[in-house]
Amino acid sequence: MPPSTITIGVLALQGAFHEHIKLLHQAISQSQSEKEQGWDILEIRTPGTLERCDALIIPGGESTSVSLVAARSGLLEPLRDFVKIHRRPTWGTCAGLILLSESANRTSAKKGGQELVGGLDVRVKRNFFGRQVESFEAELELPFLSAESTAEEESDEPFRGVFIRAPVVERILPSVKGEQKMEAEREAMVVAPGKDGVGQGEGEWPVEVMARLPGRSRRVMEKLVEAEGLEEEVGDIVAVRQRNVFGTSFHPELTADTRIHVWWLRQVLEAVQERRSKNGER
Q1: Of the ranges 47-56, 128-137, 151-160, 186-195, which is most confident?
Q2: Residue 94 designated active-site
Protein backbone atom coordinates (compact mmCIF):
# COMPACT_ATOMS: atom_id res chain seq x y z
CA MET A 1 0.00 0.00 0.00
CA PRO A 2 1.20 3.58 -0.64
CA PRO A 3 2.20 5.61 2.43
CA SER A 4 -0.50 7.64 4.12
CA THR A 5 -0.87 11.22 2.95
CA ILE A 6 0.99 13.93 4.83
CA THR A 7 -0.93 17.20 5.11
CA ILE A 8 0.96 20.49 4.99
CA GLY A 9 -0.87 23.64 6.04
CA VAL A 10 0.07 27.15 4.94
CA LEU A 11 -1.37 29.89 7.14
CA ALA A 12 -3.43 31.95 4.68
CA LEU A 13 -4.47 35.00 6.67
CA GLN A 14 -2.21 37.51 4.90
CA GLY A 15 1.10 37.59 3.06
CA ALA A 16 2.88 35.31 0.62
CA PHE A 17 0.95 32.08 1.19
CA HIS A 18 0.20 31.52 -2.52
CA GLU A 19 3.94 31.68 -3.28
CA HIS A 20 4.72 29.05 -0.63
CA ILE A 21 2.02 26.73 -1.96
CA LYS A 22 3.37 27.06 -5.50
CA LEU A 23 6.92 26.27 -4.42
CA LEU A 24 5.78 23.33 -2.29
CA HIS A 25 4.11 21.77 -5.32
CA GLN A 26 7.25 22.39 -7.38
CA ALA A 27 9.45 20.87 -4.68
CA ILE A 28 7.29 17.76 -4.54
CA SER A 29 7.31 17.33 -8.32
CA GLN A 30 11.08 17.86 -8.64
CA SER A 31 12.23 15.44 -5.93
CA GLN A 32 11.90 11.70 -6.51
CA SER A 33 11.68 10.84 -2.81
CA GLU A 34 8.90 13.40 -2.29
CA LYS A 35 7.01 12.14 -5.38
CA GLU A 36 6.68 8.70 -3.79
CA GLN A 37 4.97 10.17 -0.72
CA GLY A 38 1.38 11.41 -0.84
CA TRP A 39 1.06 15.10 0.06
CA ASP A 40 -1.91 17.38 0.62
CA ILE A 41 -1.46 21.18 0.78
CA LEU A 42 -4.11 23.21 2.62
CA GLU A 43 -4.73 26.92 3.14
CA ILE A 44 -5.26 27.45 6.87
CA ARG A 45 -7.80 30.01 8.09
CA THR A 46 -9.65 28.12 10.85
CA PRO A 47 -8.75 25.97 13.85
CA GLY A 48 -10.60 23.02 12.32
CA THR A 49 -8.43 23.03 9.21
CA LEU A 50 -5.28 23.39 11.31
CA GLU A 51 -6.23 20.22 13.22
CA ARG A 52 -5.92 18.23 9.98
CA CYS A 53 -2.28 19.25 9.44
CA ASP A 54 0.91 17.32 10.07
CA ALA A 55 3.06 20.42 9.51
CA LEU A 56 2.65 24.15 8.96
CA ILE A 57 4.23 27.11 7.19
CA ILE A 58 3.66 30.65 8.48
CA PRO A 59 4.53 32.88 5.52
CA GLY A 60 6.00 36.32 5.24
CA GLY A 61 3.72 39.33 5.34
CA GLU A 62 2.89 41.84 8.07
CA SER A 63 3.33 40.12 11.41
CA THR A 64 1.01 42.46 13.35
CA SER A 65 -1.81 41.95 10.84
CA VAL A 66 -1.34 38.17 10.87
CA SER A 67 -1.40 38.13 14.67
CA LEU A 68 -4.54 40.26 14.91
CA VAL A 69 -6.42 38.23 12.29
CA ALA A 70 -5.32 34.98 13.95
CA ALA A 71 -6.65 36.26 17.30
CA ARG A 72 -9.99 37.23 15.77
CA SER A 73 -10.21 33.87 14.00
CA GLY A 74 -9.60 31.93 17.21
CA LEU A 75 -6.31 30.59 15.84
CA LEU A 76 -3.71 31.90 18.28
CA GLU A 77 -4.14 29.27 20.98
CA PRO A 78 -4.49 26.39 18.47
CA LEU A 79 -1.30 27.62 16.79
CA ARG A 80 0.52 27.65 20.13
CA ASP A 81 -0.71 24.13 20.87
CA PHE A 82 0.32 22.97 17.38
CA VAL A 83 3.86 24.30 17.81
CA LYS A 84 4.59 23.94 21.52
CA ILE A 85 2.39 21.08 22.78
CA HIS A 86 1.91 18.79 19.78
CA ARG A 87 5.31 19.84 18.41
CA ARG A 88 4.35 19.54 14.77
CA PRO A 89 6.97 20.71 12.23
CA THR A 90 6.53 24.44 11.65
CA TRP A 91 8.44 26.85 9.40
CA GLY A 92 8.12 30.63 9.59
CA THR A 93 9.52 33.02 6.98
CA CYS A 94 10.13 36.70 7.80
CA ALA A 95 6.91 37.67 9.62
CA GLY A 96 6.52 33.97 10.44
CA LEU A 97 9.90 34.01 12.18
CA ILE A 98 8.74 36.96 14.29
CA LEU A 99 5.55 35.16 15.30
CA LEU A 100 7.46 31.98 16.19
CA SER A 101 9.97 33.80 18.41
CA GLU A 102 9.61 33.71 22.19
CA SER A 103 10.61 37.38 22.46
CA ALA A 104 10.51 40.40 20.18
CA ASN A 105 11.55 44.01 20.51
CA ARG A 106 8.64 46.41 20.72
CA THR A 107 9.61 47.56 17.23
CA SER A 108 9.09 43.90 16.29
CA ALA A 109 5.64 43.85 17.91
CA LYS A 110 3.90 47.17 17.56
CA LYS A 111 2.21 48.64 20.60
CA GLY A 112 -1.45 47.91 20.70
CA GLY A 113 -1.79 44.36 19.86
CA GLN A 114 0.61 41.88 18.36
CA GLU A 115 0.85 38.60 20.20
CA LEU A 116 3.49 35.95 19.55
CA VAL A 117 2.97 32.24 19.02
CA GLY A 118 6.43 31.29 20.27
CA GLY A 119 8.37 28.09 19.80
CA LEU A 120 11.88 29.41 19.15
CA ASP A 121 13.95 30.50 22.14
CA VAL A 122 15.18 33.63 20.40
CA ARG A 123 14.72 37.39 20.53
CA VAL A 124 14.09 38.97 17.13
CA LYS A 125 14.27 42.52 15.87
CA ARG A 126 11.96 43.47 13.03
CA ASN A 127 12.90 45.75 10.11
CA PHE A 128 16.54 45.32 11.10
CA PHE A 129 17.81 46.40 7.70
CA GLY A 130 15.38 49.27 7.22
CA ARG A 131 12.17 50.03 5.39
CA GLN A 132 10.65 48.41 2.31
CA VAL A 133 12.67 50.60 -0.06
CA GLU A 134 15.84 49.25 1.56
CA SER A 135 15.00 45.64 0.75
CA PHE A 136 17.77 43.65 -0.92
CA GLU A 137 18.97 40.26 -2.06
CA ALA A 138 22.12 38.49 -0.89
CA GLU A 139 23.83 35.17 -1.50
CA LEU A 140 23.77 32.89 1.53
CA GLU A 141 25.84 29.84 2.34
CA LEU A 142 23.48 27.15 3.64
CA PRO A 143 25.53 24.09 4.65
CA PHE A 144 22.45 22.19 5.80
CA LEU A 145 21.29 21.93 2.17
CA SER A 146 24.51 20.29 1.04
CA ALA A 147 24.57 17.94 4.02
CA GLU A 148 21.26 16.33 3.10
CA SER A 149 21.18 16.62 -0.69
CA THR A 150 21.18 13.70 -3.09
CA ALA A 151 23.79 13.23 -5.80
CA GLU A 152 21.61 14.66 -8.56
CA GLU A 153 20.67 17.80 -6.63
CA GLU A 154 22.67 20.99 -6.93
CA SER A 155 22.95 22.21 -3.36
CA ASP A 156 26.47 23.61 -3.16
CA GLU A 157 25.55 26.88 -4.89
CA PRO A 158 24.78 29.88 -2.66
CA PHE A 159 21.10 30.52 -2.02
CA ARG A 160 19.79 33.88 -3.16
CA GLY A 161 18.04 35.29 -0.10
CA VAL A 162 15.33 37.92 -0.55
CA PHE A 163 15.19 40.31 2.42
CA ILE A 164 12.09 42.55 2.63
CA ARG A 165 11.77 44.55 5.85
CA ALA A 166 13.51 41.54 7.29
CA PRO A 167 14.00 40.70 10.96
CA VAL A 168 17.13 39.12 12.40
CA VAL A 169 17.69 36.94 15.44
CA GLU A 170 19.16 39.39 17.88
CA ARG A 171 19.84 36.91 20.67
CA ILE A 172 19.67 33.19 21.39
CA LEU A 173 17.80 32.79 24.67
CA PRO A 174 18.25 30.13 27.34
CA SER A 175 15.67 27.36 27.26
CA VAL A 176 13.21 27.77 30.11
CA LYS A 177 9.92 26.20 31.11
CA GLY A 178 7.01 28.50 30.43
CA GLU A 179 7.40 32.19 29.67
CA GLN A 180 10.74 33.91 29.08
CA LYS A 181 10.39 35.99 32.26
CA MET A 182 13.77 37.67 31.99
CA GLU A 183 12.76 38.96 28.57
CA ALA A 184 9.38 40.12 29.88
CA GLU A 185 11.17 42.31 32.39
CA ARG A 186 13.01 44.16 29.66
CA GLU A 187 11.64 47.48 28.51
CA ALA A 188 9.66 47.56 25.24
CA MET A 189 9.53 43.79 24.78
CA VAL A 190 6.74 41.40 23.84
CA VAL A 191 7.00 37.80 25.03
CA ALA A 192 5.04 34.71 24.00
CA PRO A 193 2.96 33.15 26.77
CA GLY A 194 4.10 29.85 28.21
CA LYS A 195 2.12 26.69 27.56
CA ASP A 196 1.47 24.63 30.70
CA GLY A 197 5.09 24.79 31.79
CA VAL A 198 6.37 23.37 28.52
CA GLY A 199 9.84 24.63 27.62
CA GLN A 200 10.78 24.54 23.96
CA GLY A 201 14.37 23.50 24.48
CA GLU A 202 13.99 21.58 27.77
CA GLY A 203 17.78 21.30 27.92
CA GLU A 204 18.02 18.82 25.04
CA TRP A 205 17.05 20.94 22.05
CA PRO A 206 19.14 24.10 21.85
CA VAL A 207 18.62 26.64 19.09
CA GLU A 208 20.73 25.84 16.03
CA VAL A 209 22.01 28.69 13.90
CA MET A 210 21.36 27.57 10.32
CA ALA A 211 22.49 30.66 8.38
CA ARG A 212 24.12 34.04 8.83
CA LEU A 213 24.27 37.10 6.65
CA PRO A 214 27.90 38.24 6.84
CA GLY A 215 28.32 41.53 8.67
CA ARG A 216 30.59 42.57 5.83
CA SER A 217 27.66 42.38 3.39
CA ARG A 218 25.34 44.36 5.64
CA ARG A 219 27.84 47.12 6.36
CA VAL A 220 28.69 47.57 2.69
CA MET A 221 25.03 47.57 1.80
CA GLU A 222 24.24 50.24 4.39
CA LYS A 223 27.36 52.23 3.43
CA LEU A 224 28.34 52.55 7.06
CA VAL A 225 31.99 51.85 6.33
CA GLU A 226 34.25 51.79 3.30
CA ALA A 227 34.39 48.52 1.41
CA GLU A 228 38.19 48.38 1.63
CA GLY A 229 39.94 46.74 4.55
CA LEU A 230 36.92 45.16 6.22
CA GLU A 231 37.62 42.37 8.67
CA GLU A 232 35.52 39.25 8.64
CA GLU A 233 32.60 39.43 11.05
CA VAL A 234 30.40 36.77 12.57
CA GLY A 235 27.35 38.11 10.76
CA ASP A 236 23.65 38.47 11.48
CA ILE A 237 21.60 35.35 12.24
CA VAL A 238 18.98 34.89 9.52
CA ALA A 239 17.93 31.23 9.95
CA VAL A 240 17.48 29.09 13.05
CA ARG A 241 16.03 25.74 14.05
CA GLN A 242 14.94 24.36 17.39
CA ARG A 243 13.39 20.93 17.65
CA ASN A 244 10.28 21.06 15.42
CA VAL A 245 10.50 24.77 14.54
CA PHE A 246 12.46 26.37 11.68
CA GLY A 247 12.63 30.08 10.95
CA THR A 248 14.16 32.22 8.19
CA SER A 249 14.47 36.01 8.00
CA PHE A 250 14.38 35.89 4.22
CA HIS A 251 11.77 34.75 1.68
CA PRO A 252 12.64 31.49 -0.14
CA GLU A 253 9.11 31.50 -1.55
CA LEU A 254 9.87 34.63 -3.59
CA THR A 255 12.54 32.81 -5.60
CA ALA A 256 12.43 29.95 -8.10
CA ASP A 257 14.83 27.92 -5.94
CA THR A 258 13.06 24.96 -4.33
CA ARG A 259 16.01 23.62 -2.32
CA ILE A 260 14.89 24.84 1.12
CA HIS A 261 11.35 23.63 0.52
CA VAL A 262 12.68 20.20 -0.54
CA TRP A 263 14.89 20.08 2.57
CA TRP A 264 12.02 21.07 4.85
CA LEU A 265 9.66 18.48 3.35
CA ARG A 266 12.24 15.83 4.17
CA GLN A 267 12.36 17.05 7.78
CA VAL A 268 8.58 16.85 7.87
CA LEU A 269 8.55 13.34 6.38
CA GLU A 270 11.03 12.11 8.97
CA ALA A 271 9.13 13.71 11.87
CA VAL A 272 5.75 12.41 10.72
CA GLN A 273 7.07 8.88 10.16
CA GLU A 274 8.58 8.88 13.66
CA ARG A 275 5.36 10.14 15.25
CA ARG A 276 3.19 7.66 13.38
CA SER A 277 5.51 4.80 14.23
CA LYS A 278 5.31 5.65 17.94
CA ASN A 279 1.52 5.87 17.74
CA GLY A 280 1.15 2.68 15.70
CA GLU A 281 -0.11 4.59 12.65
CA ARG A 282 0.87 4.34 8.99
Answers
A1: 47-56
A2: yes
